[in-house]
Write a structure and sequence with these properties.
The chain is an alpha+beta fold. It has ten helices and 16 strands.
């Protein structure tokens, strides 16, 4: 099973031409979202070339969309160019909301033992001293079921006692805090509390985007088939790691980069068949993963769907867990979002006309864990097929990429790389 509680935190003060044709709007939006996801990943990956990495483009884009509602002038232009779309456009916003509802619907309770569960929340924290611009609260309320949270319980330990926070919360679907929403609210509140306690008195507003995912494999890896096997590290040495195994029917394909580097893609669906984990592995054991990363584009990612074929394979995938705390202050300018971080050039007058707001930092906190757990339906079959000696083999025994995607919308919810499955450091 894969568990991905994730947080994208944007602390404020201190996204691509517009889509016109209604007939191509959905296709264009999907492409621009994917392009932003890959660009964001590459910008973060360049700063951490040899380390495990996971990022949630889905969560970061939601937070940037919320900021875009209050951006004006060149700050708004850069956010539109970076994201690839304008959330102020009624058609775009409607499509985004429909997409989010599709991605959040049909998910089971986070406490359920089976099925996939996905929740996304945006929270805008505004200090009491900030006077919001007329109409901004109404615009926020129209963004992904946003509501004003009146339980003003947060207080910055580093600021004066009167500098308390009003959270504006965006729920992923129903907007309430009942049932599974209580878990979502608890996760957001925990991140929100830890964030608010570290803000200085000059930081009057914070955007917090949280994404939580728990998924059971549609066809499980049986724990008895997990063995310690060799994994090739970047420096050429090997270590032994717990390697999961199953022999089953999967979607698999082989592809070429523009420089003719060969790589394979394995698609592993979660229960419910609405989400899947795609594992991307260079075929040449001597070819560095960085070479593949440098050539990766969303055009290539989108082409995988047509090239994947169902086939019976022996699948070897290491158990892994990682936790990344990333500062996106350098990554976002790399995708064209610069003025938002400049105290002189930032224009968030749509949020407050009387206070000069800018982005002081952009924090992103993500955890991922991939294990054997999943549905029990395929356990017996996996044990039988384990003995097939002529099956093709997909063996992730060296650095690889992974993408967690929503199948219907094509959204890249999480994207990352595994350089060392045994390394769980930040």
């Amino acid at each position: 099973m894969c568990r991905l509680p994730a947080s994208a935190i944007l602390a404020v003060l201190c996204l691509a031409s517009p889509l016109h044709s209604s007939s191509s709007l959905q296709v264009g939006l999907r492409y621009r979202q994917g392009s932003f996801a890959v660009a964001l990943y590459r910008a973060v990956a360049d700063a951490r070339p040899d380390a495990n990495l996971v990022v949630s483009p889905f969560g970061v884009a939601a937070a940037l969309g919320l900021l875009q509602l209050g951006a004006r002038g060149n700050t708004r232009v850069q956010l539109e160019a970076g994201l690839g779309y304008d959330v102020n456009d009624a058609q775009v916003r409607e499509l985004l909301l429909l997409q989010w509802h599709a991605e959040m619907s049909n998910s089971s309770s986070p406490m359920a033992p089976q099925g996939a569960w996905l929740r996304q929340t945006c929270i805008l924290l505004v200090q009491r001293s900030i006077k919001l611009a007329a109409g901004f609260a109404q615009n926020v309320e129209a963004w992904a079921d946003v509501s004003l949270m009146r339980d003003n319980h947060l207080q910055n330990n580093n600021t004066r006692k009167d500098e308390t926070w009003f959270p504006l919360q965006a729920g992923s679907s129903s907007g309430d805090l009942s049932g599974s929403g209580e878990v979502q609210h608890a996760e957001a509140s925990s991140s929100l509390s830890s964030t608010s306690s570290s803000l200085s008195s000059s930081q009057q507003m914070t955007v917090l985007s949280t994404v939580a995912f728990r998924g059971a494999w549609q066809k499980q890896f049986h724990a008895v088939n997990t063995h310690n096997l060799h994994f090739l590290l970047l420096d050429g040495t090997t270590i032994k790691v717990p390697m999961m195994h199953q022999a089953t029917e999967v979607r698999f394909g082989q592809f070429l980069t523009l420089s003719n580097q060969r790589y394979s893609v394995l698609d592993l669906p979660y229960s419910g068949l609405s989400l899947s984990l795609q594992v991307v592995l260079p075929l040449d054991r001597k070819s560095p993963l960085s070479s593949l990363e440098a050539q990766l584009s969303f055009h290539q990612v989108a082409s995988w769907e047509a090239g994947l074929r169902r086939t019976k394979m022996d699948v070897f995938l290491p158990r892994f867990k990682m936790h990344n705390k990333l500062n996106l202050r350098s990554a976002l300018p790399a995708v064209g979002i610069r003025d938002a971080f400049n105290p002189t050039d930032a224009d968030f007058s749509g949020i407050s006309a009387e206070d000069s707001l800018y982005v002081s930092d952009a924090f992103h906190d993500v955890t991922i864990e991939v294990t054997e757990e999943g549905t029990k339906a395929a356990a017996a079959t996996a044990m039988v097929l384990l003995k097939r000696s002529r099956s093709p083999v997909f063996k992730a025994d060296r650095p690889f990429l992974f993408l967690l995607r929503h199948i219907k919308t094509g959204s890249i919810l999480f994207m990352g790389r595994v350089m060392n499955p045994a390394d769980q450091s930040l």
